[in-house]
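EI: anyone free to look at a 108-residue chain?
SC: sure, send it
EI:
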Amino acid sequence: MTGSRSRPFYPGYIRTPIHERSRAAGVPLEGAVPAESVEDAARTFVRAALGRPARDLATTRSGGVGYAVVRLLPRGLVDRATRAHLRRLARRGHFEGGIAREFAARVR
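SC: here you go
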C-alpha cells in the first residue's frame, strides 16, 4: 500500500474477518506471521499520509527493523530462510487441508 507522496506503507497481518476465507481454504496467516493491531496500522497510515517523508513505513518498530535487516541480507539467504520457515510450519500441520495441502506435502 502506498501513502500520499508515494511512501511505501507495509501493514502486516491484522486479525480481521478478511482472513476467514484464507483460513477456510487451508492457508491461515495466524501463527505464520506476527499479528499487528488495527490501531498501529491506522497510526502508521496517518503518518504516511500526513507525516514527514520517509523511505518506508512499517506498522510496528519490530516490523521496521525486520524490513531493514531483510534489505541488507543477500536475496538468496532471505529466500532460504523463508522456505525454511514455511517448511517448519508445514511440518507442524499449519497448512493442513484445502488449497495448501499439496504445497505442505511438497515442502515437508
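EI: The first helix runs from residue 20 to 24.
SC: 👍
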